[in-house]
Amino acid sequence: MSNESNNSKDAKDSKESKESNEKLLKMIKAMLAEKQKEKQNEPKSTDQHKFWKTQPVVRYEDKPVEQGPLKLQTLDEVPKQPQSLPTGFEWCTVDVTDEGHLAELYDLLYANYIEDDDEQFRFKYPAAFLRWALTPPGWNPEFAVGIRATESQKLLAFISGIPANLVVREAEIKAVEINFLCVHKKLRSKRLAPVMIKEVTRRVNLTEVWQALFTAATIIPTPVSTAQYYHRVIDWSKLYEVGFAHLPENSTPEEQIAQVEVKKVALEGFRKLELEDLPQVQKLLSEYLSKFQLYQKFDLDEMKHWFIPASKESPVMSYVVEENGVITDFISCYGLESTVLGNHKHDTIRIAYMFYYATQHEDLKERLTTLYEALLVKVKENNYDVLNALTAMDNPLVFENLNFKPGDGFLNYNLFNWKTPRIDGGIDNSVYEPAPGGLGVVLL
């Protein structure tokens, strides 16, 4: 057979293989969509939520066409004392600048916070991460709320709030971001979570802040947006051995390893973010984020806190591209370790998460792809095993070209005491296809 015939046959086989893979991916996405619907099982009525039906949140049944606060309050209406707790429990404020308190918080979160459905992986939040996450400029010590056992003084529950200047469809809101809601597993039947939410709300309201943003894996009344996680595997062999990655049918480990190889890229001017870059980067990021319908505004102090590593233990990695003294691009990510349970080969996986980025280049897809490629090199050099990204911002533009695969994790964004029409989270809900949306904020 001639070389031309062989080449023609190879091209045909390659085309058919590509079409087959595209069909398979489409089927997988459709199955994920059905799985998500079953998993979240959205109630027909807000009244089925005993707690949330009493709160200033959008009801499932409502479809806001305008935006604004759901409830107007004055400082005089805010209770000056917290709600009473059951006998044996007491309120506390966790001092997140104290190493002992951070160690207690680490223990509580490690044993009782986020864990995957199969109980294979458990997040680890070291002191450096918690300090970074909980003490941005303007943070209020009173917003780190805890519950202790009266007798033993053991920390049993926690919730936090940090300040955030949000923009929702051009309306600027002084708000807080609520995070790290955690109740000891043995106390879940005590219904302490609603009590924790009410207490942090009370403390925040006492500072005359009335709105909040928070995320949840489950649906509660009512998400303003929903994003999906995508994963870019870096160390396929390790992730396969711990059950995070899977071997597709009709493929081999060698093929999977080759597929996720991180290749060096030549991006002139790509370097670490420096302190003196912040004024330019702040302007660049502000302009980029302003095109989204929900985003956060950062001042220079906040830029320094969130994007300049404070120590070697800092979880954040930030880079810029400089051309003739001008910063044209910015990209960042942060890292977390996760304990692997019950695996004899590996006890930890290292996960990097896409954070914020911005560019002034017009060809957004091509430029973001190049920036991601440069970041992937740094992520691999820092021994991370996978890079995770939500369908927020313009992330979906790069997923296909850079071998990101859809995960089964979804993140619902909720606004407290603020109504606005639903914001696209970068997903085509028919088959959860990634597509750039209106969501421009990233919560840790």
TrEMBL record:
GO terms for molecular function: glycylpeptide N-tetradecanoyltransferase activity. It catalyses: N-terminal glycyl-[protein] + tetradecanoyl-CoA = N-tetradecanoylglycyl-[protein] + CoA + H(+). It is an enzyme of class 2 (transferase). Residues 7-25, 32-50 have a biased composition (Basic and acidic residues). It comes from the Eukaryota. Monomer. Residues 1-53 are annotated as: Disordered. Adds a myristoyl group to the N-terminal glycine residue of certain cellular proteins. Keywords: Acyltransferase, Transferase. This is Glycylpeptide N-tetradecanoyltransferase. It comes from Starmerella bacillaris (Yeast). Belongs to the NMT family.
